[in-house]
């Protein structure tokens, strides 16, 4: 996502002209178009999920491939009918993601095991994304691209640190090492559905509370530090305020989602 977002502000290719295109999303009109990060995200999520699970769970590969293609294609088409991207923007996003998957695939196992390799790993997982966001390319005018990028990288950092906490402090039991292809995907029953919805509701409510509390606290601290009038919307867009408050907020959200929420589920007997 960082590569895609930065590429937009480096290439500075405009979004489709209006008219003839009718833009259905107003908030991101100020952003540039190439590549489509929605297309990148949809392609990455669907195909990395397929590649990561095909040797672990028992399901027809053809069905998984079909679902990955359908999901990513629907997202790509949605970017066209909402007037946000051209066909070239979408194809560019898909191609960049395909290259990234091929290049990084040999290191997936190593990356997956880094979360418990060293006590210093959380420092790296925090510092690198924060510096990338703070040194985001300067745009000619304000757009939500930097803020969105910070949100995405911060949430990713929080999730990464959350998994590290779970592993390092042994808050969750490790999965048993079993031969590939013997795990089943159990059919969805009414009881499982109710339990899943209950866990989701409890988790999302806690995450919303944490998000609001951390956001308010971080903004108050930053406004006080830089002597800015509270509730000044323009001040929230300043680099030294926008990046830190969003990074702290969504890192907290990521940690909460992966560490605190499962602990709450266990406490309530929902696991």
| Number of beta strands | 2
Percent of residues in helical segments? 55-70%
Shape: globular
Stretches with pLDDT under 50, minimum 5 residues: none
Q: Evaluate the radius of gyration.
A: 21 Å
What does the average pLDDT come to? 86
Give the number of helices: 9
- Major beta sheet summary: 2 strands, parallel
Largest beta sheet: what is the strand line-up? 1-2
Helices and strands in order:
Layout: H1 2-11, H2 37-53, E1 57-58, H3 61-81, H4 87-104, H5 108-113, H6 121-134, H7 145-168, E2 183-184, H8 190-225, H9 239-267
Parallel strand pairs: 1-2
Helix pairs in contact: 1-7, 2-3, 2-4, 6-7, 7-9, 8-9
Task: Write structural notes for this entry.
This protein is an all-alpha fold and 271 residues long. It has nine helices and two strands; from the N terminus they run ααβαααααβαα. A two-stranded parallel sheet has the order 1-2. The mean pLDDT is 86.
Quick recap:
This protein is mainly alpha-helical and 271 residues long.
Feature tags:
two-stranded parallel ribbon; 1% strand; 2 domains; mainly alpha; 2 strands; 271 residues; 9 helices
């Amino acid at each position: 996502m960082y590569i895609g977002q930065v590429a937009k502000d480096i290439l500075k290719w405009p979004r489709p002209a209006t008219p003839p295109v009718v833009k259905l999303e107003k908030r991101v009109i100020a952003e540039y178009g190439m590549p489509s990060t929605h297309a990148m995200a949809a392609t990455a999520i669907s195909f990395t999920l397929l590649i990561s699970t095909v040797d672990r769970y028992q399901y027809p590969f053809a069905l998984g491939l079909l679902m990955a293609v359908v999901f990513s294609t629907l997202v790509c088409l949605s970017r066209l009918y909402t007037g946000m991207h051209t066909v070239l923007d979408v194809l560019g996003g898909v191609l960049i993601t395909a290259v990234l998957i091929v290049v990084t695939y040999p290191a997936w196992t190593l990356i997956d095991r880094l979360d418990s390799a060293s006590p210093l790993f959380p420092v790296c997982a925090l510092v690198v994304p924060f510096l990338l966001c703070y040194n985001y390319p300067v745009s000619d005018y304000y757009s939500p691209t930097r803020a969105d990028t910070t949100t995405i990288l911060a949430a990713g950092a929080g999730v990464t640190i959350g998994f590290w906490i779970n592993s390092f402090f042994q808050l969750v039991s490790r999965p048993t090492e079993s031969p590939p292809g013997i795990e089943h995907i159990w059919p969805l029953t009414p009881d499982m559905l109710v339990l899943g919805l209950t866990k989701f509701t409890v988790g999302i409510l806690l995450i919303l509370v944490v998000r609001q509390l951390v956001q308010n606290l971080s903004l108050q601290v930053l406004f006080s530090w830089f002597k800015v009038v509270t509730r000044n919307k323009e001040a929230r867009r300043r680099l030294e305020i926008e990046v830190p408050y969003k990074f702290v907020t969504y890192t907290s959200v990521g940690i909460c989602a992966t560490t605190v929420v499962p602990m709450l589920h266990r406490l309530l007997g929902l696991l």
